[in-house]
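Problem 3 from the worked examples.
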Amino acid sequence: MVKLHINIGSNQNRRQNIAQSIDALKMNFFNVVCSDIFESLAVGFEGANFYNMGVNATTDLSIAEVLSILHTIEDKQGRDRSQPKFSSRQIDLDLVLYDQVIDVENNLPRNDILKYNFVLLPLVQLSPQGVHPLENKTYAQLSATIKPLKSYNIEILTEE
């Protein structure tokens, strides 16, 4: 089994969209564990604040299969792929880690780990002693110099 880390983000109907995504992830992956929700400003455009969270899970699927599932979940939730990269989102599901695999074509490990605290902080919460495959530092060590975000332990009601 492969360990995954997925980042979920939404700035439209945030609780509902995140809850639906978690339900869908639980239907497709094993051992799904969620971080708290972190609120962050929109990056690269003017818009409502985002809720972001991380999810650890396991799977026996390939990278391509995982990415296909994530895109299908986004599409079912109304993700509009014709919008600019930096724009409001119903839902955004990003594969951040696929075990310790380094895959430049699929941006693994996702370079956003080192750019955005809303990607790194959920990793720190779920896997503080996990080691970044390229930086050779734990996520806790990488977080030592970043600005903290407001986090919420929000109960997201999902189907069991």
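Problem 4, a separate protein:
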Amino acid sequence: MILIAADVLQVADLVETIPDVADRLIETFWPGPLTIVFKASERLQEFAFRKSKTIAVRVPDSLICLALLKSCGFPLVSTSANRSGEAESTYAHEVSRVFGDELDLIIDGGETPSKIPSTVVDVTRTPIRIIRQGAISEPEISTVLDVY
């Protein structure tokens, strides 16, 4: 599970701190296909994330998702549109077939713009670590970080 947020202000409430390296990635790739793993805020310990000291967050580039997130005013728990190791789902009916009644809500915004999942980067360590290679390549990330 990850949390999707409308903007970096919502993210700031979820995490212990936003390190400089994360700021650079956020400025370049959000909204977009980059999921960042942060140290979770102690405030989250009372919720479902209490067993983990980290939290994965993304600001999606879907206009439908951003509108929903802005209108409700808080981040939402989200999942990938597939199970680990399985093919990506690109339509709502495919997500429904894979997850069935496990999800509270599936938003049908048509076909997803990309069949490539988000890149997941852990900024809780130095140097940062790419956990999953996705739509943003390691060279693209390195270029952004080397510029500063």
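Solution to problem 4. The chain is about 30% helix and 15% strand. Strands lie at 2-4, 34-39, 54-58, 76-78, 119-122, 129-132.
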